[in-house]
Specification:
GO terms for molecular function: rRNA binding; structural constituent of ribosome. Strands 6-3-2-1-7-8 form a six-stranded antiparallel sheet, with no helix packed on it. Strands 4-5 form a two-stranded antiparallel ribbon. With about 110 residues, it is mainly β. It is about 0% helix and about 45% strand. The chain has no helices and ten strands. The chain has a domain of about 70 residues: SH3 type barrels (Roll), CATH 2.30.30. It is elongated.
């Protein structure tokens, strides 16, 4: 799989699925699986039975990984989804939003 242009800490917009349109910050990138974990998006509930460590039991809610193609980097200018281009500025490679031309990092 090609290297992802989405990095940990990026602000992203969900493009499809039950959370379409939501924005969040990337908590984890899994390039080998082609998935990302976005804070507050794609929440799942895990029902836990009471055990020795957790005598109460209960429901744990956490973010599940989602396919990297379902998210796009949010444009720093207006927050809408944009593609990312890599340019060289001052001898360093930086990521640039295609829509606005703003640098995402660097």
């Amino acid at each position: 799989m090609a290297s992802a242009k989405i990095k940990k800490g990026d602000s992203v917009v969900v493009l499809s699925g039950k959370d379409k349109g939501k924005t969040g910050t990337v908590a984890k990138v899994m390039p080998k699986e082609g998935k990302v974990v976005v804070e507050g998006v794609n929440m799942i509930a895990r029902h836990r039975k009471p055990s020795q460590e957790n005598p109460q039991g209960g429901i744990d809610r956490y973010e599940a990984p989602m396919h990297i193609a379902k998210v796009a980097v949010a444009d720093p200018k207006d927050g809408k989804p944009t593609r990312v281009r890599i340019e060289e500025k001052d001898g360093k490679k930086v990521r640039v939003a295609v829509k606005s031309g703003e640098t995402i990092d660097g």
